[in-house]
Amino acid sequence: MQVVFREFSPFDLWIWLEFSTVPSLMEKEYVEEVFNSWFFLGKLGGFDAESLQVQEVGLEISYMDYD
Asked: Where are the alpha helices (DSSP H) in 1-67?
């Protein structure tokens, strides 16, 4: 797999993955979980200390429901 980064707007972002063969169901689920984890890290403020959405709401993290 080849990863190429260009200038981007985080509000209008498309990520294209190119596989050398057709991905199996397990590989598709793996890629989906990678993006889900990336999303949750962002919600927990893992990428930007200014964007602590969970902390600002005042929720107890141990009781959060995760999809």
From this structure: 25-43, 53-57
Instruction: For residues 42 and 35, give the distance between their C-alpha atoms in angstroms, rounded to a whole number.
Output: 11
- Cβ neighbors of 67 (< 8 A, separation 6 or more) are 36
Distances (CA, A) of 32 to 38, 39, 43, 52, 57: 10, 11, 17, 23, 27
Which pTM does this prediction carry?
0.47
In this model, does residue 37 exceed pLDDT 80?
Answer: yes
In whole angstroms, give the CA distance from residue 53 to residue 67.
16
Which amino acid, 65?
Answer: D
Q: Is the pLDDT of residue 22 over 70?
A: yes
